[in-house]
Specification:
It is a single chain. The C terminus is likely disordered. 47% of the residues lie in helices and 16% in strands. α8 runs antiparallel to α11. Strands 1, 2, 3, 4, 5, 6, 7, 8 and 9 form a 9-stranded mixed sheet that branches. α1 links the parallel β1 and β2.
C-alpha cells in the first residue's frame, strides 16, 4: 500500500478527556473515507493519565491510528515537530488534542487535496465551550485560491499560528525538519510559510471546519510568542514571494481584531502586567497610528475603561476582518447558557 494522502497528527499530553472527544469524532469521520487515504498519528508526550487507554481503544476501532509514546516529556514544541517529521502523508494536518474536525471536514480536505497540489490548505476555526455542533456559527463561506504566499498570509491572518487550521504539503518541503524550529512556540508557522513558498498555489476556506476548545491552552507568555516571536519569524522570509507589504497587511489585520481581544482579556483576567504587554506591543507597532489609536489605550487606561474600550474595538475590528458571525454566535451561546448550572462532577472517562 502506498503512502496516505493525508496524515492527521495529534500531539498530546495529559488531556485524555479532550483527546477522547476528538478521536471519537475523527473515527466517525474516517468511516466515510476510503481505507488507506488517511493515517492518524498520535504522539503521546509521556502522559500519566488515561491517554494510553484512550489511544488503545480508538486504535481498536480504526486501524488507521498509529501511536508513538515518548519515554519522557520532550516539550510542546518538540512534540509538534515530531508529529510533522514522523508523518507519512503527502499532506499533514497537526491537530490540537482538544480541537475537532466538524462533520464533513475530512472529506472536504481530501476532495481538495486529491485534485490539485496546494502548498497549504487553510481551514477556518471557531471556538466552542461544550457542544461543537450546537455552537457552530453556521452560515456559508467561500474557498479562494492564492497564487502568492503573501495573499494566503493576509487571508488566513492569525490562524497561521493555529496548528489545527493549516494543512501543509509535506512533499513540497520533504527535506525540512520541523525539529530545527523548536523554541519559539510557533514551529508550525515556519512550516506553513515554507510550504506556501514552495507551492504554486494555496487554498483558504472561510467555511468553519475546525472547532477549538476555548480557554484551554497556555504555558507560554502570550505577548512574547504572538508579537515578538511571530513577527520575527515572518520577517525571516521577506523576499520576492513574501513581500514586506504582505507582512504589513497581516499586521494590520492582527491589530484590528486579534491583539485588542487578547489585550482586553489580559486586563480583565490580570494575567499580564499592563506595562509588560505595552512594552511588547509598542516595540513592534509603536510607530503605527492604528496601534496607538486602537490597541495601546487598552494597556494604559484604568482597568474598567480599558476593558470597555477593548470590547468595543474588538467588535469593530472583527467585523471588519469578517469574524462578526463568529462573535455573534459566541454571544448567543453565552446568553443561552446564562441560567445557573449544577455543580460539575468528576466522572470517569470509561464505564463498564
Amino acid at each position: 500500500m502506498g503512502k496516505p494522502l493525508l496524515t492527521i497528527a495529534i500531539p498530546t499530553f495529559n488531556r485524555a478527556q479532550f483527546l477522547k472527544v476528538a478521536l471519537d469524532q475523527l473515527c466517525q469521520e474516517l468511516t466515510r473515507v476510503e481505507p488507506g487515504m488517511i493515517e492518524v498519528l498520535i504522539c503521546d508526550n509521556a502522559s500519566t493519565d488515561e491517554t494510553s487507554l484512550v489511544i488503545t481503544r480508538a486504535a481498536v476501532q480504526n486501524h488507521a491510528i498509529r501511536a508513538v509514546r515518548n519515554i519522557q516529556n520532550i516539550g510542546s514544541d518538540a512534540n509538534i515537530a515530531q508529529c510533522f517529521d514522523l508523518a507519512m502523508g503527502h499532506y499533514v494536518l497537526v491537530m490540537g488534542d482538544d480541537d475537532i474536525l466538524v462533520d464533513g471536514a475530512v472529506e472536504w480536505i481530501l476532495n481538495r487535496a486529491q485534485h490539485k497540489d496546494y502548498g497549504v490548505i487553510g481551514l477556518r476555526s471557531y471556538g466552542f465551550d461544550f457542544d461543537f455542533r450546537a455552537e457552530h456559527p453556521g452560515g456559508s463561506g467561500r474557498t479562494t485560491t492564492y497564487r502568492t504566499p503573501g495573499g494566503l498570509l493576509v487571508a488566513i491572518g492569525p490562524l497561521i499560528t493555529l496548528i489545527s487550521s493549516c494543512v501543509i504539503n509535506k512533499r513540497l518541503i520533504a527535506t525540512t525538519k520541523a525539529a530545527e524550529f523548536c523554541g519559539s512556540n510557533l514551529v508550525q508557522v515556519h512550516l506553513v510559510i515554507r510550504a506556501a513558498l514552495a507551492g504554486e498555489r494555496s487554498l483558504y476556506t472561510s467555511h468553519y471546519l475546525v472547532a477549538c476548545k476555548r480557554n484551554n491552552s497556555g504555558g507560554y507568555a502570550f505577548f512574547d510568542v504572538f508579537v515578538e516571536n511571530l513577527i520575527s519569524i515572518l520577517n525571516q522570509y521577506i523576499g520576492e514571494r513574501l513581500p514586506r507589504a504582505a507582512i504589513r497587511s497581516f499586521e494590520t489585520r492582527m491589530l484590528l481584531g486579534f491583539y485588542p481581544f487578547y489585550a482586553m482579556r489580559a486586563r480583565r483576567d490580570k494575567s499580564t502586567l499592563p506595562y509588560v504587554m505595552r512594552s511588547r506591543l509598542s516595540a513592534r507597532f509603536g510607530r503605527r497610528w492604528l496601534y496607538r489609536l486602537w490597541v495601546d489605550p487598552i494597556t494604559w487606561l484604568p482597568r474598567p475603561m480599558a476593558i470597555a474600550w477593548g470590547a468595543l474595538v474588538t467588535t469593530i475590528g472583527r467585523s471588519i476582518t469578517g469574524d462578526l458571525r463568529r462573535g455573534l454566535a459566541f454571544a448567543w451561546n453565552r446568553v443561552r447558557r446564562a441560567t445557573p448550572r449544577p455543580p460539575r462532577q468528576e466522572i470517569s472517562l470509561f464505564r463498564d
